[in-house]
Design a protein that fits this description.
Number of domains: 3
CATH class of the largest domain: Alpha Beta
CATH topology of the largest domain: Alpha/beta knot
Largest sheet: 7 strands, parallel
Strand order of the largest sheet: 7-6-5-10-8-11-9
Helix content: 25-40%
Distance between the termini: 62 Å
Number of strands: 11
Number of helices: 11
Shape: elongated
CATH superfamily of the largest domain: SPOUT methyltransferase, trefoil knot domain
CATH architecture of the largest domain: 3-Layer(aba) Sandwich
Radius of gyration: 22 Å
């Protein structure tokens, strides 16, 4: 069915028009497919056509209809994406009058700016999946996990996330890692995917850190220890007071999931550290992570 959809959309794009019956077929077929199973560009094209008077895509972007890509929303993620230079901005969608964030984005655009499409705020909300887009959204090339081998000389501070599932927590933790001079972030397959909400919550700073996808925490910790890393396991209780530890680099800080923390099977593979707290209540995952990361980077040795 996807090939039929692409054919229908291609006919519209390159022939300058589309027969009504072909367009009805494309729309009916698209409604039968879940959004998550469609290539991002294909779904975006459908939304823009359906909910705006501007047509499917600007002609300059129509040839990209069969490419896959990601969405970033809000000025900060787009700016940091442009500053990092790892991904290319393929198109920008925004409201008219132009949002205030556009003035901050413009200076970072290259001389040959990407195509710009003006759409309503409702269209942006549908494209972003939320209303937190500040009137501007970018379609960018896909995020790619880092693959460059890790060395203790190049990456003195590593953060390992064992199953952080909330996109806002993941983004906030990555933001803290960047601000506290961590050199890389390792995430398990149980962590949230690197979607637009993560980049929004990180204020775009996730663009600047190499983020690795790992399959086994135990194996990764073992490899890091063999390379000379000191591993610190953050736990809710039963660990050494984190404010009294003399942290030595190269180091790796392991943060567990929101519900269960670090897997019980691997907690013994490193030094367990705990944050003091008022009672049996617990810190929010991203707040606790931020405190741990600060302590490991800026506490007195």
């Amino acid at each position: 069915m996807s090939s039929c959809l692409l054919l229908a959309l291609k006919r519209h794009t390159f022939c300058g028009g589309i027969e009504q019956k072909v367009w009805r077929f494309a729309c009916a077929s698209l409604r039968m497919v879940w959004r998550d199973t469609l290539p991002t560009t294909l779904y975006t094209a459908f939304v823009v056509y359906k909910y705006s008077n501007q047509g499917l895509f600007m002609r300059a972007t129509s040839k990209r209809i069969q490419q896959s890509g990601d969405i970033l929303y809000g000025a900060h993620p787009i700016i940091e994406c442009l500053k990092a230079g790892k991904r290319k901005v393929l198109a920008i969608y925004m409201t008219k009058p132009e949002p205030k964030g556009w003035e901050r984005v413009k200076p970072y655009l290259q001389k040959q700016a990407p195509p710009i499409q003006y759409v309503s705020r409702d269209v942006l909300t549908r494209m972003a999946g939320c209303a937190d887009h500040m009137g501007i959204l970018a379609f960018v090339t896909p995020f790619v996990y880092a693959t460059k081998p890790i060395t203790a000389q190049e990456k003195q501070r590593i953060l390992l996330l064992d199953g952080v599932q909330d996109v806002h927590n993941l983004g906030a933790i990555v933001r803290s890692a960047y601000c506290t001079n961590f050199d890389a972030v390792l995430v398990t397959k149980q962590c949230a995917r690197m979607v637009a909400g993560v980049f929004k919550a990180s204020a775009g700073l996730a663009e600047h850190l190499p983020i690795y996808l790992i399959s086994s925490v135990a194996h990764t910790v073992g490899e890091l220890k063999s390379m000379g890393y000191t591993v610190y396991m953050t736990v809710a209780d039963g660990g050494v007071d984190a404010t009294t530890v003399s942290y030595t680099a190269p180091l790796c800080v392991v943060i567990g999931s929101e519900e269960r923390g670090i897997d019980m099977k691997i907690r013994s593979l490193g030094t367990k550290v705990t944050l003091s707290q008022r009672d049996t209540s617990s810190y929010n995952a991203s707040v606790a992570a931020g405190i741990f990361l600060f302590l490991t980077s800026f506490s007195k040795k």
